[in-house]
Amino acid sequence: MTSNAMFEGVFCPSITITKENGSVDYDNWGRHLDHLADSGIDGVLLFGSIGEFYSIDVHTKAEVVKFAVSRVAGRMKVLVGVGDTNLDNVRTLAAESEAAGADALVAVSPYYFGPSPDTAKRYFSAVAKSTTLPVLLYNFPARTGNDLSPELVADLAAENPNIVGIKDTVDTISHTRKVIVAARRVNPSFSVLSGFDEYYTVNRISGGNGVLCGLTNVEPETFVKLHRAWQKGDYATAVQAAERISYLMRLYDTADLFISAIKGAVKAKGLSISTAIREPATQLTNRQY
């Protein structure tokens, strides 16, 4: 059940762990990275949506990347979210990440204006040309205001050899399936990961490569169990793990913003972190926790 894809399995978009004053809590973040690696997670994404990328300055991000690469020490891949509305910031973080030894970059669509396909193509191509690292596209139309069509994904993969995959956070498998078909015509080993936790099995059935999703912060072991069972063809075990993930999905509805819910669940699992998220935000209450 394995493939030649560079990115396959289960990947965790890490929460950004801070102290109550907003400074980075390196001690607890290090413990969290250790837990993910020890559980068998295939890679960690720094500064995805759950990592509050939109609210953290480039200098802080660059320092965290250096820390994470050193802490992980090759036990899993380290991906860096370089999303920004300012291309100069994207290029800066891309260069810093490459110098630090990160394994790949993840680039979300510029948000707010929701670029046209031509603008999106120019933007993502500029990101790809700014680095020698592999680049994964990040499609999250509910937040960015525009959707990366299967045709656009295929065009980007054809024109930029280091664009090697996508995180497709679209709540319909038909979109992801069409992306898989279109991109694989151009690059047979193009990686397609779902951004929705409960889509692992249907993603794999459709020819995809796994998930890059938030609940891996909470129960990485369950996702690793699912992935390894699927790879072995042990579908009874895979279904059992998938049922647990389906049950855990209700966590997302327990807070005003899903980031708070994930932080609260990580804390409930035993890591003594602050559940604060950057303002403007509605913070997790004691009752919710």
Automatic annotation (TrEMBL):
Which EC number(s) does UniProt give? 4.1.2.-
Q: Which Gene3D superfamilies match?
A: Aldolase class I (3.20.20.70)
Active site location: Y138 (proton donor/acceptor), K167 (schiff-base intermediate with substrate)
Any one GO cellular component localisation term in the record: cytosol
Keyword tags: Lyase, Schiff base
Q: Recorded GO terms, molecular function? A: lyase activity
The species this protein was found in: Bifidobacterium adolescentis
Annotated family: Belongs to the DapA family.
Instruction: Please give the Pfam families that the UniProt record associates with this protein.
Output: DHDPS (PF00701)
Q: What InterPro entries does the annotation carry?
A: Aldolase_TIM, DapA-like, Schiff_base-form_aldolases_AS
Task: Indicate the segments annotated as coiled coil, or none if absent.
Answer: none
* Name recorded for this polypeptide: Dihydrodipicolinate synthetase
